[in-house]
Amino acid sequence: MRCEDFIDALPDFINRHMPHEDSYVMLDHLTACGDCRHALALELALRRLTERFVTDTLPAHPFALLPSVRPMKPDPYAAIIRRGGLLMPLEFIRAAIRPLTDTIELVQKIV
Ligand SMILES: [Zn+2]
Fold first, then answer.
1. 46 and 85 share a domain?
2. 41: CA distance to ligand 1 center in Å?
């Protein structure tokens, strides 16, 4: 096995998404190649760091803001039709873009 092939197959090897026979070829290459052992160690360390960042840092910050977001009314258009009036088209547009404006508000709070 060439080192390039080992590196290409590394994600599948780590995720155990390869047949047993191919895993043995990978292990056989690892016993003989220090560069690929180093590449495997780096990949595993990077994954551990990434997992820690995602589980410790990422959920806490943005999701803590979610309860403050105004929940969308079940059917905003029905209420507009019931009210009627000359401004109905503008109210339709405002109701249609409300999820977008709520999202922009949330992003501004996060940033
Ligand atoms: Zn190698």
1. no
2. 13
Q: In this predicted model, which residue has the larger pLDDT, 11 or 100?
A: 11
Both 99 and 80 in one domain: the answer is yes
Could you list the residue range(s) of the whole structural domain that residue 85 is in? 61-110
Angstrom distance (rounded) from CA 93 to CA 76: 11
pLDDT tens digits, one per residue of 16-48: 899 999 999 999 999 999 999 999 999 998 888
**Residue (of 52, 50, 56, 96) closest to 75 by Cα position:** 96
| Distance between Cα 33 and ligand 1 center (Å) | 5
Whether pLDDT at 67 is above 90: no
Give yes or no: residues 25 and 49 share one domain: yes
30 alpha carbon to ligand 1 midpoint, in Å?
7
